[in-house]
Amino acid sequence: MAIDLPVRQIRLAFPQLGRHKLGFTITELLIALMILGEIATFTIPKVLQTQQNSKYNAMAKEVAGSLSDAFIILKSKTTVSATTKAVDFGPYLNYVKIDTGPGTVQDAWGSSYNCNSSNPCYVLHNGGYLLLWNQQFTGTTNLHRTIMIFDPDGSGIERGVWYVFYYNGRLTTLSTCLAGTIGEAGCPYGSAADPSYFKW
After folding, report:
1. Spatial CB neighbours of 125, under 8 Å, sequence gap ≥ 6
2. Is 130 exposed, middle or buried (0-12, 13-18, 19+ CB in 10 A)?
């Protein structure tokens, strides 16, 4: 047999029924904010670094394409020979201005190089600096090379990518440099040569 009690009587007998908590205490809010702060402390810097690395990697790849295009135009305009230098690519690049000082670029190991009239830096539209080395191919085999350094932030603070451009038009970096490369110091540095953000 069912007992049908009025709602009012049930509420009087069991006052805790029907009462709902309407918010959080200040302690609960502070604990939640503390947890969120800890998570943000560890994740936000990593997210920002990943975004910056992606940006710099894209810039470096864009520069690699520009160098390849400049070499093709250079070959169509003049005879490429053993005396051709990286600096000869300059007129065929798309750039904002030429910096012959006091700009500085930094390579993958932290060595800095000043922009000057012999080794000018081309300030690119993406904000980076490209230093074209005043160094000849010195020969005409597929292993003769010249070099360039790209600094993505143009300040000499962020480490740059050291490109190796071969006489046959092949472009690599020092980490992928060909064994037997002919030129100043060859390719002695191996896989440690590229900055951490750069991936082909």
Report:
1. 94, 95, 96
2. buried
Mean of all residue pLDDT scores within the chain: 85
Q: What is the DSSP string of 84-96?
A: -BGGGGGGGS-EE
Task: Please state the rounded mean pLDDT for residues 51-66.
Answer: 93
Q: Does the pLDDT at position 7 exceed 60? A: no
Residue bearing the bigger pLDDT, 189 or 167: 167
| Half-sphere exposure for 17 (CA within 13 Å, toward CB) | 8
Q: How far apart are CA 63 and CA 7, in angstroms?
A: 77
Rg for the chain, CA atoms, rounded: 31
End-to-end CA distance of the chain: 80
Asked, as a colleague might, if the bond just before 102 is cis with ω within 30 of 0, I would say yes
Task: Check the CA dihedral 111-114-119-120 and report its sign.
Answer: positive
Q: How many CB atoms lie within 10 A of CB 115?
A: 25
Place of tokens 């993958």: 108
| Confidence band, pLDDT 50/70/90 cuts, at residue 154 | confident
pTM for the full predicted model:
0.77
Asked if residues 146 and 99 have their Cβ atoms less than 8 Å apart, the reply is: no
